[in-house]
Every structure is written in C-alpha cells, then in structure tokens.
Amino acid sequence: MKSHTSILAILVGLPLIATAVARSESATPAVEPVAIDATAPAVVEPPPAPLPFQTTHTISKGEVLGTIMPTYGVDTERVRAAALEWHDLSRLRADAALIFSYDGVDPLPIGLRYALDADRTLVLTRGAPDPTGRQTWSGQLDEIVYEHRLGRHAMVIKDTLWEAARAAGLSPADINSLAEVYQYDVDFNTELRAGAILTVVADELWTEGRLARLGTPMAARLVNAGETLVAVRYAASDGKSRFYDGEGTVRRKAFLRSPLAFSRVTSGFSHQRYHPILKRARPHLGVDFGAPTGTPVRAVGDGVVEVAGTQGGHGRFVKIDHPGPYASSYSHLSSIAVRPGARVQQGDLIGAVGSTGLATGPHLHFQFWVGAKHVNPLSIEMPTQEQLQGADLTGFRAERDRLIAILDDQQEGLDSGEPGLADADEGELSSDAAEDAAPSQANPG
Ligand SMILES: [Zn+2]
Fold first, then answer.
1. Measured in angstroms, how far is the CA atom of residue 414 from the centroid of ligand 1?
2. pLDDT digits (tens, 9 = 90+) for 43-60
3. From CA 348, how far away is CA 47, in angstroms rounded?
4. End-to-end CA distance of the chain, in Å?
5. What is the tens place of the pLDDT at every residue in 353-378?
6. pTM tops 0.70, yes or no
7. Ligand 1 centroid distance, CA of 287 (Å)
8. 358 CA → ligand 1 middle, Å
9. Please, which residues have CB less than 5 A from ligand 1, an ion?
10. Nearest alpha-carbon partner for 296 in 353, 223, 226
C-alpha cells in the first residue's frame, strides 16, 4: 500500500517537476524541483484569484448560431432574442468573430461580443437563470461616438488614384464617388500621370484623441499634368449629395467609361486575338482591365441584374440588362455583391475583381451589348450635364468658397513644412519610371 502511495505521489508530482525543469533548464536543473517541493507548503497563499479570459470563435462559412452556441453551452434562442433589437444573429458573417468571455470560475461564458461593423459591437451578458433554470441574456450596443473635424490630406499618386486614396484612408465608396466628378475630364486608365497630387478636405473621425479614419471627402483638388481640377461635395435640394466641379456642374453619362474607377486597359476589344490560355486566335469581344483582386466593380449604368453566378470560363459572372437595347457583363469576379433580379444604379458595387474561370491573373473582362451584338465598351458614351440652379447654386458657391479656403490655406503648409514627403516622392517617382520601362504584366484572358 505504501509503495502505491509513493508511486501515486511521484505520478502526481511529475508534471510539476517537468514544468519546473523545462522553465529553468540550463540554470539549476537538478536542485530546483526539490526546492519547490520543500518551500511550497510553508508559504501560506490565498487561493489564486480567478482569471477572466476570452475565447474567440471565428465563424466558418455555412456555420449557424444554432450549431455554434451549444458547443459553448449557450442558450441559442435566449442569445438571439437578446440581440434582436440590433441584429438577427441567425445571420452571421463568415470570418467574423464571436468573442466569448469567462470569469474564470463559471464554466459557461458570462458574456459574448459580436462586431456588427467597425463602429458598432453587440455586447451580450448572461444574467441569473430564470425560475425554470434557463439561461437569461441581455444585450446592448457598444457604439463608438466620433468627434468630427475637417482635415486636409494630400496624396501623391504613384500608380493609380485608387491605391493612393486607399493608402490615405479613404473608403472605397468615397473614392468612387470622388472619381465620378473627374472621370469625364481625366481618363484614369491612360491620362493620369505619376506624381499627380490629389488634395482632399475630408471629414475626420476622431476618438480618444486619435484619428480613427477618414469619412466623406468634402472637397478635392487634383493636379495632373499641369491641369487643376476641383471637386466640391454639395447636398442639393433634391436631398442627394454629389460632387460638382467648381462651377456647380455635375456630369453624368448613361454609362460609365469603365466599371473600375481606377485601372489599366490590359487588352482591348478585338475580333481576332491570340488567347494566352487557349493558345489560339479567337475574338476578344470585351475589354480587360488590370486591377488587384478585391478592387470594387461598379455597374456602368442603371439596370436589372440578369445573371449573377458562375458561368464557365467567365468564372463568377454578372450581367446587367440596361434600359433600351443595352446590356453589360463582368467576368472573373472574386466575389459577387448582387442577386439576379436586383435593381442597380450606375456606380453601384456589383462585385470585386478576381481571377475565377479562365484567367491568367486578376483582371476584369468587361463586355457590352447593343441588342445581340457585342460592341466595344470604350466607344460608348452618352453624356448629360446637370447644372445647379437658383438657391442650390447660391448655396453651392458658399460651400465651395468655404472648402476651397481650407484647401488653399493649408496648401502652403504642405509645400514648406513637410520636406520628408517631397523627398519620398522623388524616390517613388523614379522607381515608377523604372517599372514602366520594364515589360508590362502578362496579358490575361
Ligand atoms: Zn478578356
């Protein structure tokens, strides 16, 4: 019996000794475990305070609340009901996180957090069980309240306006709307020069003394190849906020020049072209725009989504039926943001650039039809102009002068006060020139 006890003691003690040895391997390997055993009973320590901890559950595609919650011992229905005022948790986003918190004593989570977006987090807390012994949960919304300031931001364009504006912190939607006012003056695919400078006055969102991110740009000035283009955002009496040029004119066409705000044409429309994958000549009845995977793809005109799904060599594919005999399509998408039958407006996000289907690399294959006939999308243009009138025009001019004063006022500060930026620009420009001289990217399908 005695021998059994000591064997048991050794077995129980073993992990502790092993841990101690592992922690101080080279220092005092032989003595230390004994020392710990000798001193441990002598020290009177209170039981360790429970250590709260968190477990993060990343939601996999196809996972639902009803399968996740039971694995954490959480009452699915109670949690869903507690959150319902703000969000229906039966619709979870793949790759989003559910963060379970524990107090270190209770084996079940005492709380649960789920971020609805960058600013709003759902906070759910478990209370005392109800009379039937069932879990109770309550919810609240934790929302970041921002302080808004107007700030000026200058960005030097190295490659595309898109990349420069993203790097400066503008959101994809804001860059697209900003580009709309410029896109009839500048062909972003061919006319934008490296070294062009975009200066914006943007709504800045501050929290706890730091700039969290940029909100809506209110005014912008693009200096490109000796030309200066101004854009001012204004909320007209129709309730819509748009960017206007310095005279209060907004230009709009039935169809955008390109479904991508910023990109390069990597392969044009042709009736005979050597196909890099099929390795034979065949017509290329569309235009390829080279752009990184994930670049937003916009509907070139108002219409109804006819196809949104996978279609052979086109990969993930969207086709839009426009008023009249017109239709447009978008191939090789990495993701699709619309459903068949959905009504879209010009400029709406319909998906993102990818390389699905028959594609050698990320690009957008864009097609346009008049009736059943494929036409060159780059040759279709139907401009209309809208000029602000009356009180709208008066209001616009006041807003324009206010914002342009901010653009001008601090422009001087940039020129003299930030030598580092100017130095960096020089280097970036010369490396860009080197890249331009190198062979261009592979020609995708
Ligand atoms: Zn193509």
1. 42
2. 677 777 889 999 999 999
3. 60
4. 80
5. 999 998 889 999 999 998 888 888 87
6. no
7. 6
8. 9
9. 288, 365
10. 353
